[in-house]
Automatic annotation (TrEMBL):
It comes from Pseudonocardia xinjiangensis. SUPFAM superfamilies: Metallo-hydrolase/oxidoreductase. This is MBL fold metallo-hydrolase. Pfam families: Lactamase_B. InterPro entries: DHPS-like_MBL-fold (IPR041712), Metallo-B-lactamas (IPR001279), Metallo-beta-lactamase_dom (IPR052926), RibonucZ/Hydroxyglut_hydro (IPR036866). The lineage of its organism: Bacteria, Bacillati, Actinomycetota, Actinomycetes, Pseudonocardiales. Residues 95-220 form the Metallo-beta-lactamase domain. It comes from the Bacteria.
């Protein structure tokens, strides 16, 4: 999958689109006083991680469950980890607080199980944002619907989230990926809002980027094995155009950027957010950066170099970032890098 060479058409599809100068339609993103980002699902759960003034962790002994094989009839199972991502984003402006769910993990019950063990009531969520249509970010929607009952919940998605996709790694090894159904989501009570363009939520204080401009020379997207159905055949889906990020501007701090997989490229995403908002300062980058595996390893050094130049105070790579990129970022930015884990809450305040 990761060692195949792209043909001329595939190379052309991955060529960055020019996006020079200020944004044609700049967004005046209202500053917030505080944002808290809680990782409900990630690939890792580490109960021994410690917190500091930037992050709190779920501690052992927080979530007891019945287990007959132990004296006293109970045990502490900790939290679930799975190949997926879900985060709870709570934004405060003055006395007003709004909570959004950004992605929902892989399994139907992983996210809601972790939320329950952490004492988080997901019925308080005001809306859902999907970073893109891959199933490891949307699987928990079923569990969320089951917990909420019939009350409608708005959900922001890019229209490309419904795209049929598959992995074709050569020979007979072809795996079609689960595809989101808008009809099913409507039936579960989600009010789907499709947007290619940027969306501004929560009284103008939360930006959903929409399609991200591809402006770097090194972030070329997915390998040829990642394919999409066009209606008449399968074609290389390099760009994953439905990939979008969530952005807030914390007063006196700068931008906080949250990604799901970062298929558009971490640097492309940050630059796009900066260009849309006119805010140059990046305070924090959190989420999946999709730098794992041989196809993406050449992208690690220029990504790390660009992030060093941006000088964020906090870098929290998760999910699909990959261990080589994690090591590179931790070594290059030891003061900013933090390990992610299910049950971690990052607080950034003015």
């Amino acid at each position: 999958m990761c060692d195949e060479h792209a043909g001329p058409a595939e190379v052309l599809a991955a060529v960055p689109r020019p996006a020079e100068g200020t944004a044609v339609d700049p967004i005046a993103l209202e500053p917030v006083d505080e944002v808290r980002i809680t990782t409900l699902i990630d690939n890792v759960f580490d109960a021994l991680l410690t917190g500091d003034d930037r992050v709190t962790r779920v501690s052992p002994g927080q979530a007891w469950e019945t287990a007959a094989q132990f004296e006293g009839g109970r045990t502490d199972p900790g939290l679930r980890a799975e190949h997926g991502f879900a985060a709870l984003v709570t934004v405060r402006r003055g006395a007003s607080t709004t909570t959004l769910l950004f992605d929902t993990g892989l399994s139907a019950d992983g996210m809601v199980t972790n939320a329950s063990r952490m004492g988080i009531d997901l019925s308080d969520v005001h809306g859902v944002v999907l970073s893109h249509g891959h199933y490891d970010h949307a699987g928990g929607l079923a569990g969320l619907a089951g917990r909420r009952g019939s009350r409608a919940l708005p959900m922001v998605v890019h229209p490309g989230a419904w795209t049929r996709r598959r992995l074709s790694v050569g020979g007979d090894e072809i795996r079609e990926l689960p595809t989101l159904s808008r009809r099913a989501l409507n039936g579960e009570g989600f009010e789907v809002v499709e947007r290619r363009e940027p969306s501004v939520l929560v009284d103008g204080s939360v930006l959903i980027t929409g399609e991200v401009d591809r402006t770097t020379e090194f972030e070329h997207g997915m390998p040829p094995a990642h394919q999409a159905w066009t209606g008449s055949g399968w074609e290389h889906d390099a760009l994953v155009r439905d990939d979008q990020a969530l952005v807030v501007n914390v007063r006196d701090r700068g931008l906080v950027v949250l990604t799901g997989c970062g298929h558009a490229g971490a640097v492309n995403i940050v630059r796009h957010a900066q260009r849309l908002t006119g805010v140059d300062r990046l305070h924090a980058l959190l989420g999946g950066l999709h730098l794992g595996g041989p196809f993406f390893e050449p992208v690690i050094p220029p990504t790390v170099a660009a992030l060093i130049e941006m000088a964020p105070a906090m870098v929290v790579p998760g999910h699909c970032t990959g261990w080589r990129a994690q090591h590179a970022l931790a070594a290059a930015m030891p003061g900013a890098w933090l390990p992610n884990s299910s049950g971690s809450t990052y607080r950034i305040a003015a």
